[in-house]
Specification:
- The protein has about 280 residues and is an alpha/beta fold.
- It has a single domain (about 10-275), classed as NAD(P)-binding Rossmann-like Domain (Rossmann fold, 3-Layer(aba) Sandwich).
- The protein contains 10 helices and 7 strands.
- The protein has helices spanning about 20-30, 45-55, 70-85, 110-130, 155-175, 195-200, 205-210, 220-235, 250-255, 255-275, and strands at about 10-15, 35-40, 60-65, 90-95, 140-145, 180-190, 245.
- It is globular.
- It binds coenzyme A and NADP nicotinamide-adenine-dinucleotide phosphate.
């Protein structure tokens, strides 16, 4: 797809930007001329992504390894990004973890792990980035999920966490608006070939049913989500803040219905088998 946005002289940080949807976003900002920083836990994934960002035309690329669950490491990471790149024009916060599990079968720590990564991780990222955001003009984008407003069986942890992520978006749009900082959430639908989609549709039957349930008749791809982020990061979105933008092929209009039911059925069968 031709790049229609120009992010020359802009600085972008994508947290959790080393695989899947978020890496796709980082690569599109790179191709549009931005200097791009990425961060995630794995140094190998970080290094591989930085090489790809450079190859795609980033004005500069930087990668740092940290875990969003560790607020001090996140703060140190943003200080390093600022030292190299200066103030941030665009921040994408997308680190997340997910696995399907019924609430009754999940340990307390399993539930908390997803809350710690998705929800606490988001507020750690927001607070650490805050001193370094361009004022006025910065654009923050949180990568949320349909679980924020649709209940899915086997997803109580993610539903709780992502609903919180979107409430952080709405609240910070009030708190930071007067400084000229915009913040929005982007909600990808089911995105083809990604880790998230593989975890939620682990068999061809589930994937087929899931695809059938999407009104636009196909899974999304990483570029669909990146396009929305380029728009929200640009001046064309200068009066958009506090919104939750679904990039989901109208999945929301149909609800979680059959997909959630299939997942619930699968997990209950597995749980019953385990219990003998
Ligand atoms: N079902 C039930 N519980 C599970 C589980 C599953 N499929 N996978 C992990 N858990 C539990 C673990 O048993 C552990 O709980 P316990 O201490 O009571 O045994 C807890 O969750 C933490 O697991 P651990 O493997 O120590 O966490 P981690 O910090 O190493 O990894 C995850 C975090 C579990 C979210 C891991 O899947 C991950 O790193 N995910 C990132 C990629 C991803 O999820 N991509 C999709 C994004 S939508
Ligand atoms: P993915 O490929 O697994 O990407 C997750 C990214 O987050 C990776 O870069 C990972 O790198 C990083 N990460 C995970 N835990 C982290 C932690 N504790 N600290 C720092 N970084 C961490 O997943 P994806 O499927 O593309 O999903 C990306 C985003 O889209 C997520 O926010 C997800 O909720 C959302 N989403 C996805 C779908 C979908 O269909 N895939 C649908 C709706 C919403 P490391 O392993 O190196 O840490």
């Amino acid at each position: 797809m031709a790049t229609t946005f120009d992010f020359n002289n802009k600085t972008v940080a994508v947290i959790g930007g080393t695989s899947g949807i978020n890496r796709g976003i980082a690569e599109r900002f790179a191709a549009a001329g931005a200097q791009v920083a990425v961060a995630s836990r794995s140094q190998d994934k970080v290094d591989d992504t930085v090489a790809s960002l450079k190859a795609r035309g980033a004005a500069a690329a930087l990668g740092i390894a940290f875990d969003v669950r560790d607020p001090e490491a996140v703060a140190e990471g943003f200080a390093k990004i600022h030292e190299s790149f200066g103030d941030l024009d665009i921040l994408v916060s997308g680190a997340a973890g997910n696995f399907p599990a019924l609430a009754a079968d999940m340990s307390v720590n399993a539930f908390k792990t997803v809350i710690d990564i998705d929800l606490m991780g988001t507020i750690h990222v927001m607070k650490a980035a805050y001193p370094y955001l361009t004022r006025p003009g910065a654009s923050i984008i949180s990568i949320s999920a349909p679980q924020s407003y649709l209940p899915y069986e086997g997803q109580s942890h993610v539903c709780a966490a992502k609903a919180g992520v979107d409430q952080i978006t709405r609240t910070l749009s009030l708190e930071w608006g007067l400084e000229g900082i915009r913040i929005n959430s982007v909600v990808p639908g089911f995105i083809d070939g990604t880790e998230g989609a593989k975890r939620l549709a682990p068999s061809p039957e589930v994937l087929k049913g899931l695809t059938r349930s999407i009104p636009l008749g196909r899974l999304g791809d990483c570029d669909d989500v990146a396009n929305a982020c380029l728009f929200l990061g640009s001046d064309m979105a200068s009066y958009i803040s506090g919104t939750v933008l679904a990039v989901d092929g109208a999945l929301y209009q149909r609800g979680s219905g059959s997909t959630g039911e299939m997942m619930g059925h699968m997990l209950r069968a597995a749980s019953a088998q385990k219990k003998g």
